Amino acid sequence: MMLKTHLCRACVLGFFFVASHTHAAIFADDEARKAILQLRQRLDTFNADQNQELSDIKARLQKLEEGLEARARGQLEAARQTDLLQKDLAQFRGQLELILNELSKAQKQQRDLYSDLDKRISAFEPKPVTIDGNTAMLAPAEIKAYEQAIAPYQTRDFKQAAISLPRFLSSFPESLYAPQIYQWLGNTYYALRDCKNAITTQEKLVQTYPNNSRVSDALLTMGTCQLDLNDKKAARKTFETIVRDYPTTPAAETAKERLSKLPK
Asked: Are 209 and 177 in contact (CB under 8 A)?
């Protein structure tokens, strides 16, 4: 009985011992599972965070790469645009140089044209001329004709002067040069010993231009021709007119000398 009792006790103790160890083992497994689950959760969270951070880094890296690519493309486009602008600028410079050359030529042609027009206009513009104390505006054509008319007289080519001087008077009968032309024409006839035409021409000067300073010399030529024609009466009258009307002129002194030699 005692043995049985001890055995029962031993069995009970053994049961409790085994039960106690079993319970402890079960309890330890739960804690481990919980720890493992927690570790897995932490690991999953860590992995999720790492994945998110890696995704963010990748996204930022992609944006950076895209930005660099865009910048590179922009730089390439800028370089291309710069190259095009430089080419256009070189072309424009060439065109500008051509335009400036053409403009320079056009300006020179215009200056030459204006100069030529100015010369042509000047050839027709009247010019002031003063002769025998009188001033008038004369056309260049008249001045040129006058110069051509008196040229033979100035070189003592009286035969040619007898042609050129009347021609001028025919073309310009009212010219400012007319008194001089009449006088020189009368002198031309006298040089050619044509006293009749010499007297007629000088009379034309005296009658047409009585207040001209050449009248006294014209009268002196007339008186000299009258003496050559042996018309002493007419010569005396002419010389007396000079002395009376033009007493202060050199012609008056010559007229006095010739009067002194004429019979009264």
From this structure: no
